[in-house]
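Sample A.
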Amino acid sequence: MSDTSTVTDASERNRFEIHHGQDLAGFAEYRDHGRQRIFYHTEIDEQYSGKGLGSKLIRGALTDTVAAGMRIVAVCSFVVKFLDGHDDFADSVDEVTPEILELLD
């Protein structure tokens, strides 16, 4: 599959989206809390799984978050796993606290 995917911040829906061509291939939902962006859910459409689009989506979302001067809070297991393998974001990550989890309830 040639890479015709693009990542955009659909801020009106509080999520980053990845499109493959014209198709929505997946999204990463977030909630902003002060200077923190809490990533709590990621989905990649089944037909696009295993093609690296999830990683591209999360890299784009995290890069945009850091560029906006915000801190990353990873509640979503996909984002946690991505961060475990990518130390380049380590200085921009905050811990998940009980207060963060309460915000998401």
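Sample B, a different protein:
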Amino acid sequence: MTLDTHPIAAAAALAPDLDPATVLWSELVPGGHHHSLRVRRGTTLRFIDVDGGANVSLLLYRADERLERLNLPDTLKAQHTAHLSAGHVLYSDMGRVLAAIASDTVGWHDPLCGVSDAAQVLARYGEGRYQEKRNAMHRNGKDGLLVELGKWGLGWRDLTPTLNLFSKVSVDDDGALRYAPDHSRAGGHVELRFEMDTLVALSCAPHPLSPATVYAPGPVAIVAWHSGTAGPDDRCRLSCPENQRGYANTELAHR
């Protein structure tokens, strides 16, 4: 899929249900590539799996105090779940809500398996150096995220467990992790509504459990729009008592 060069026109094609007056920008992250950006409170990012089968390994940090960052163990424990979808929120390690999953057509996103590294990618896909493949080189998620973190003064010690958007991994009765191929279809999307100013780092490299034998990660489009923050009757706020406390804690920090 080719996006229009004008970001608002591209957004209209990618997300025709959004009011163009609320759209801020849009862009396409090619498969395997990485990106980082600062997102303001009250902004929603819609991530769109353009061709199907994409993976986005995601890290979040409070923009004005980067020692506060996404804490997936607390996120799962507070909401009594082992996967994430619409109605869930993403907690920081200070018990505040960095972002909420406001909309989701995919239905399951993996918080368990972390990110691919250079050894995994080499073993599964073979050598794929820049010298031979140029922009189609075999990138891995860990190195891509470290590149992005370095742009913001962060490094190895700030590399925490990732949320893998568009990927489904379940646990069977014996405790083995089971990756679901073809889980995310072309055009599927998930929206993260940001409740705090947040630094976002992401990689579109393959999921570490992907069974693919050819290196061909899919592109992901992003549409940003001004949504405002959660209202008093918001689904994510009311989905469990802990989330109500999390939102109260978040709003205290913005008084």
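Observation for Sample B: The mean pLDDT is 95.
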